[in-house]
Design a protein that fits this description.
This protein is an alpha/beta fold. It contains six helices and 13 strands. A nine-stranded mixed β-sheet has the order 11-10-9-12-8-1-6-7-13, sandwiched between helices. Strands 2-5 form a two-stranded antiparallel sheet. The protein has a two-stranded antiparallel sheet with strand order 3-4.
Length: 246
């Protein structure tokens, strides 16, 4: 079985976000970047588990410059066999999906995985767009998958419950919590990942139908007012006049 896992680089979840360029970009100074957790913990690890049963190969693909090689190496340490990096700035979701599709169309992949979203933009768009570009079935928000031959049975999250679907390979799958469990590479895997190939190919931003106007940081936490538990009238007044919940 030939599998492709789409991975992205995102700021660490503990990053103190600062804006630059008049609010149009993230200030990357001092930011620690990581492999997007949805791509790593659920998509990539499930691909590794399936390879252990069905054999075959796993390729990871990333859109970005050479600074992304660190997170790509982590994906290789977790169990991918090789990697492709499309050397271009990611742009919007549509341009990312197009760049991945341009490679994947020639790859003959049975399953193409994405995390359900990246933790920086939370767009959940690339997987569906990729499937459309490749004219493949798409299953979103997968939380469990069993594969037998060329048929997969996938349980996915829906509003208020779960849905079970069956799909034949090839297909595109976005993975959510439950699809697999986080796997920490050991030292041997980390060292061997340095010898695995990263194929760098050229790419260019296309389909720039949207652009970033500006970012806004969330409002800071408001101060806390302590109320004497016996002073219920004051509590009611504050809830009504300031919190406006009554």
């Amino acid at each position: 079985m030939k599998q492709l896992v789409c991975v992205s680089k995102t700021p660490d979840t503990t990053t103190n976000i600062k804006l630059a360029e008049g609010g149009k970009a993230l200030d990357s100074a001092g930011v620690n970047y990581i492999l997007n957790p949805y791509d790593e913990w659920y998509a990539l690890v499930r691909a590794v588990e399936l390879k252990a049963v069905a054999g075959g190969t796993i390729t990871v693909i990333n859109i970005g410059d050479a600074s992304n090689d660190t997170v790509i190496r982590k994906a290789l340490a977790i169990g991918a066999d090789d990697a492709v990096r499309v050397d271009m700035q990611p742009g919007n979701a549509l341009s990312v999906a197009k760049a991945i599709a341009d490679h994947a169309k020639e790859g003959g992949y049975d399953i193409i995985y994405c995390g359900k979203e990246s933790i920086d933009y939370n767009g959940s768009q690339v997987g569906a767009m990729l499937a459309e570009y490749m004219d493949l079935p798409y299953v979103g928000l997968g939380i469990h998958m069993e594969v037998e031959g060329n048929s997969a049975t996938i349980k996915r999250d829906i509003e208020g419950g779960t849905e079970t679907v069956q799909v034949n390979t090839p297909f595109v799958l976005s993975c959510a919590k439950g699809m697999a469990e986080q796997r920490i590479p050991n030292m041997r895997d980390i060292m061997s990942s340095k010898r695995k190939p990263i194929d760098v190919i050229s790419g260019e931003i296309t389909n720039t139908s949207t652009s970033i106007s500006n970012y806004d940081l969330p409002a800071g936490k408001a101060s806390v007012k302590m109320i004497d538990p016996d002073n219920m009238d004051e509590l009611v007044r504050l809830l009504k006049e300031e919190a406006k919940v009554l």
